[in-house]
Give the backbone structure.
Amino acid sequence: ADGVRHPGSFYSRKGFYGLNVVAIVDRDKRVLYRVIQSRGAEHDSTAFKHTVLYKWLTENCNWLLEKGYYFIGDSAYSLKSFILTPYDNAYHGTPQDNYNFFHSASRICVEC
């Protein structure tokens, strides 16, 4: 046996078995950080909260804020002082919609 007691926990919402990989890349698509420890059914934000990096970011959030350092995350993540996320349900032409446009443009360079 392979030691997996609950194989269903690896079955993702996308309809296949997998792992949830937490990865941080820069704008040149270089991997700066990665953790491969979560099962496919685990939500992205939960997987991130179980990392050593998340603990460090939480403990050092004031220093990061002072320096102007932050991450750009998609809507799967909660807004934190160190993670900028898009607005939900922003109306076209509003400042929130404009923010979402530039936020998405910043993310798309590494997601494609």
